[in-house]
Amino acid sequence: MIVFTKYKSTQTFLTSVLQKNGFKVAEFHGGLKRKEKEAQVAYFKADADVLVSTEVGGEGRNLQFCNGMVNFDLPWNPMAIEQRIGRIHRIGQKRDVVVYNLAAKGTIEDYILNLLDRKINMFELVVGEVDAILGDIEEKEDFSDLMMGAWVKSKDEAEMEKELDQIGEKLLENKRKLAKQKKLDETLF
To answer: What are phi and psi of 4, to 5 degrees?
Structure first.
């Protein structure tokens, strides 16, 4: 199981809790030298039960020997989530990949997860499709900034939900365009 967190202090806390409960834990973070990173990945593959990683582990690593992932801190940008999933859901993966996303009820992360999961079924998309769905949204403003703006500028929860629903409708519209494009491609090719 890979546990992703954004913050080094959270990583340290999670590692401590897991070790106290008898788990063998590998750690991966930006403070490690290249050889140390390779050693931690090798330890995870051979012996450790859990790899606790900061965002650094979400890019450029092949970890398809693992098929379970926990997003302890849910990124506000779907591309970051897709990168995390891409570490284990890639060519060579022989098992179903299981992803757990932790979000406290009523938080902005809960709203984002709802938007990504229920509106566009992000966790059922093929790697690369998230970028197409974000499309023109990301051209104008970073998705994380849109989420932050909806959260900070809203007077109350109802207004925030309305703002997030508008973003969700745009994502849904882009998803429909992608489906139409895929159907056209299949017809032509």
So the answer is: -95, 135
